[in-house]
Specification:
Length: about 180
Amino acid sequence: MKKNKLLVFILMIAIVFTSFPMCSVIATGATAISTDSQISTEMVYAKRNTTVEVGIQIKNNPGILSMTLKIDYDESKIKLCNIESGDALSYLDFTVPKNLNSGCMLPWDSESIKPEDITVKSGTVVVLTFEILDTANENDNIAINVSPVGTILNNDLDVLLIDFVSGGIYVLNYIPGDVNGD
C-alpha cells in the first residue's frame, strides 16, 4: 500500500512539473535607446462613399531593422481596402496582411541585410486606402490609431523608443479646396 501511495505521489509531482512550460530568461544585452523619431498618421478629409489614402510617416528614422505595427479603426464607419508599403523602410521586407480588419498587423523585417543597406531617411512608411461607408456621418472624426506590437529594433538589436501620433479621417460633405465639387 505504501508503494502505491509513493508511486501516486511521484506521478503527481511529474504531472505538475510537465504541465507548466519551462521559462528561461536570456540576457541579450539589448538596451532601450531614446530617439527623436516619430511615426505619425495623417489627418485627412473625405466624403461618404469615396475612398481616401491615409499616409503613415516617419520623421528621423533611426535605422529600423524590425518593426510590427497594429492598425485600429472604427469598422462601422470605414473599411480598409488596400495597403502599400512606402519608401522609408524600402530596405526591409514587408508582408501585407490577408485580413484588413481593424487590429491587422503590418510587419517589416529582414533576415539578411547588410548594415550599410539600412537607411535613416524620413518619409512614408505605409499608405492605407480606406472606403468611407454610408454609416459615417458628416463631421465624424474617425480615429486611426497606429501602435507598435512588441519592440522596434535597430541593427544592434537595441530597442528603439519612438513616439506615435494618431490621425484619422474627418468626414465632410465637401472637400476643402475643391471649388467645383469633383
